[in-house]
């Protein structure tokens, strides 16, 4: 379903989000105060305009309040990021997602009502560290301080065994959400589905349980 999204701030993070949303078929309004960034963004957005993110009238003139979602990706001015977030929330947008530069910035964004706060450097750092720590881990998504979703490659130890035989939930407290086998994604696999060596398992659970499953189950 096509969404209307305004991306404010076209640094590296904002550009990346803007490009991906555009390629996925969404209607994207790209905004930045720098002309060169706006000019570049015209190639991967429906509209790209020069505007001050902290100028409420300017944002209203471009119809920002009619959009469903906003992503505030301003990285060089915490003040502009906070003020822009506040303006967008007062306009009544359904969802306002904001990039935070540091914990102090994040705390203020929480107080002004940001719907989701993104810390790209922190999130990527956690992913890289967990991948390096594991050796079996393909990807890592933090759901909260305690729970995560991971992608693991099935070893020979799991090969030719069904989910009911492995009984991962009872033994480790984890849930296998999906199995990817030779390009086919099996979402919500059944108890008698069989795992083969090299399959990708998408597993959800408490961080400690996931670690235990990885170390003892594999």
UniProtKB/TrEMBL annotation:
<dbReference type="Pfam" id="PF02254">
    <property type="entry name" value="TrkA_N"/>
</dbReference>
<feature type="domain" description="RCK C-terminal">
    <location>
        <begin position="135"/>
        <end position="218"/>
    </location>
</feature>
<protein>
    <submittedName>
        <fullName>Potassium channel family protein</fullName>
    </submittedName>
</protein>
<dbReference type="InterPro" id="IPR050721">
    <property type="entry name" value="Trk_Ktr_HKT_K-transport"/>
</dbReference>
<dbReference type="Pfam" id="PF02080">
    <property type="entry name" value="TrkA_C"/>
</dbReference>
<dbReference type="InterPro" id="IPR003148">
    <property type="entry name" value="RCK_N"/>
</dbReference>
<keyword id="KW-0407">Ion channel</keyword>
<dbReference type="InterPro" id="IPR036291">
    <property type="entry name" value="NAD(P)-bd_dom_sf"/>
</dbReference>
<feature type="domain" description="RCK N-terminal">
    <location>
        <begin position="2"/>
        <end position="118"/>
    </location>
</feature>
<dbReference type="GO" id="GO:0034220">
    <property type="term" value="P:monoatomic ion transmembrane transport"/>
</dbReference>
<keyword id="KW-0813">Transport</keyword>
<keyword id="KW-0406">Ion transport</keyword>
<dbReference type="InterPro" id="IPR006037">
    <property type="entry name" value="RCK_C"/>
</dbReference>
<dbReference type="InterPro" id="IPR036721">
    <property type="entry name" value="RCK_C_sf"/>
</dbReference>
């Amino acid at each position: 379903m096509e969404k209307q999204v305004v991306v404010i701030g076209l640094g590296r993070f904002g550009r990346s989000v803007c490009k991906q949303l555009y390629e996925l078929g969404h209607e994207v309004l790209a905004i930045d105060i720098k002309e060169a960034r706006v000019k570049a963004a015209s190639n991967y957005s429906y509209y790209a305009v020069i505007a001050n993110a902290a100028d409420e009238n300017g944002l209203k003139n471009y119809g920002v309040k009619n959009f469903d979602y906003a992503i505030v990706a301003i990285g060089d001015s915490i003040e502009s990021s906070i003020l822009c977030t506040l303006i967008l929330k007062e306009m009544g947008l359904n969802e306002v997602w904001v990039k935070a530069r540091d914990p102090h910035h994040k705390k203020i964004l929480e107080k002004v009502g940001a719907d989701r706060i993104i810390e790209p450097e922190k999130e990527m750092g956690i992913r890289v560290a967990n991948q390096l720590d594991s050796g079996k881990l393909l990807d890592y998504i933090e759901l909260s301080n305690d729970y995560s979703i991971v992608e693991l490659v099935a070893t020979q130890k799991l090969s030719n065994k069904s989910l009911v035989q492995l009984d991962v939930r009872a033994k480790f407290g984890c849930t296998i959400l999906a199995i990817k086998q030779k390009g086919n994604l099996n979402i919500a696999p059944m108890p008698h589905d069989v795992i083969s060596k090299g399959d990708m398992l998408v597993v959800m659970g408490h961080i400690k349980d996931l670690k235990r499953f990885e170390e003892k189950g594999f």
